[in-house]
């Protein structure tokens, strides 16, 4: 009985060592995954901030372009109202402006193209 108890105890020790090693490996993997997740979260936050900045720049550029377009249309109307203007050239400029509006969304001053 003593020999059997000694063998059983050794087997139990080996099993517990294996379980301890497996738990340590799992803990190490979990810590590594946590670090990777933290890095990924930080990268995502940085990308979100960069995206917000790019959106603000794009909106500012769109507002500026809309103002310039309105100025051009106002100037065109002013030139058309003066006597002695070249009607053909003005028609062509007006047509180009109209065609460019086809590529704008309706909410931004564009129009729906007929299919």
Task: Describe the protein.
This protein has helices at 2-81, 87-101. The N and C termini lie far apart (95 Å). 83% of the residues lie in helices and 0% in strands. The model has no long low-confidence stretch (mean pLDDT 89). The chain has two helices and no strands. The radius of gyration is 37 Å and the shape is rod-shaped. By secondary structure, the protein is mainly alpha-helical. The longest helix has 80 residues, at 2-81. Helix 1 (2-81) packs antiparallel against helix 2 (87-101).
Output the keywords:
2 helices, rod-shaped, about 120 residues, mainly alpha, single chain
- Please, what is the average pLDDT? 89
Q: Total helix count?
A: 2
Q: Report helical residue fraction.
A: over 70%
- Rough outline: rod-shaped
- Low-pLDDT parts are none
- Give the topology string: H per helix, E per strand: HH
How many strand elements?
Answer: 0
Distance between the termini: 95 Å
Computed CA radius of gyration, to the nearest angstrom:
37 Å
Characterize the biggest β-sheet: none
In percent, how much strand structure appears in the residues?
Answer: under 5%
Question: What class would the helix/strand composition place it in?
Answer: mainly alpha
Short description:
The protein is built from 2 helices and no strands. It has 115 residues and is an all-alpha fold.
SSE map:
Elements: H1 2-81, H2 87-101
Helix pairs in contact: 1-2
């Amino acid at each position: 009985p003593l020999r059997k108890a000694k063998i059983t105890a050794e087997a139990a020790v080996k099993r517990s060592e294996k379980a301890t090693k497996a738990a340590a490996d799992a803990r190490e993997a979990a810590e590594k995954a946590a670090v990777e997740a933290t890095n990924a979260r930080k990268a995502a936050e940085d990308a979100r901030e960069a995206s917000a900045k790019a959106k603000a720049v794009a909106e500012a550029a769109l507002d500026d372009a809309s103002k310039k377009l309105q100025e051009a249309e106002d100037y065109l109307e002013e030139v058309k109202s003066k006597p002695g203007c070249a009607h053909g050239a003005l028609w062509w400029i007006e047509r180009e402006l109209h065609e460019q509006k086809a590529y704008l969304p309706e909410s931004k001053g564009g129009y729906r193209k007929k299919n």
